Amino acid sequence: QVQLVESGGGLVQAGDSLRLSCAASGLIFGSNAMAWFRQAPGKEREFVAGISWSGSITRYADAVKGRFTISRDNAKTTVYLQMNSLKPEDTAVYHCAADADRYSAYVPNVQRLYDYWGQGTQVSVSS
Predict the structure, then answer these.
(1) Which is nearest to 108 in space by CA: 117, 118, 97?
(2) Cα 61 to Cα 8: distance, rounded to the nearest angstrom
(3) What is the b/e burial string over 9-18, where b = at least 16 CB atoms within 10 angstroms of the residue's CB?
(4) How far apart are CA 115 and CA 24, in angstroms?
(5) CA torsion, points 72, 97, 52, 76, in degrees to nearest 10?
(6) Is the dihedral of CA 97, 62, 44, 38 positive or negative?
(7) Maximum CA pair distance of the chain?
């Protein structure tokens, strides 16, 4: 059974930083693309960042490029999202996702291509 558990969310001020973590179990972790999505109140879930199984390929939503960094530690079966220069519009529930396809060079940016999801962690940014 695959489990993804997010942590690291919280309430911060604009300009602050946070690092989210997603601990995975039940996967052969080093073989799957991983991603972060977010959902703000009243809005649809949107792609934030993704990383290939090896970590060599990353992709970001335009809204977070230059501010957020996704990384993974396959030995710890954990993926991270370092968020700097946070803005109020970054306020959302952040979800971790895993692609069941193994060893793919493609990092999807659409939620229907991810097979496993965590419950999410709340990030709130005040102005």
Answers:
(1) 97
(2) 20
(3) beebeeeeeb
(4) 13
(5) 30
(6) positive
(7) 41
Reference 32, options 93, 108, 94; nearest CA is 108
What's the 3-state SS for the chain? Answer: CCEEEEECCEEEECCCCEEEEEEEECCCHHHEEEEEEEECCCCCCEEEEEECCCCCCEEECCCCCCCEEEEEECCCCEEEEEECCCCHHHCEEEEEEEEEEECCCCCCCCHHHCCEECCCEEEEEEC
Which tokens belong to 87? 């803005």
Give the pLDDT confidence of 56-70 residue by residue, as tens digits: 999 999 999 999 999
Confidence of residue 102 (pLDDT cuts 50, 70, 90): confident
**104: confidence class by pLDDT, cuts 50, 70, 90:** confident
| Contact assessment for residue 117 and residue 99, using Cβ atoms and an 8 Å cutoff | no
In sequence order, the 6+-apart residues with CB closer than 8 A to the CB of 75 are none
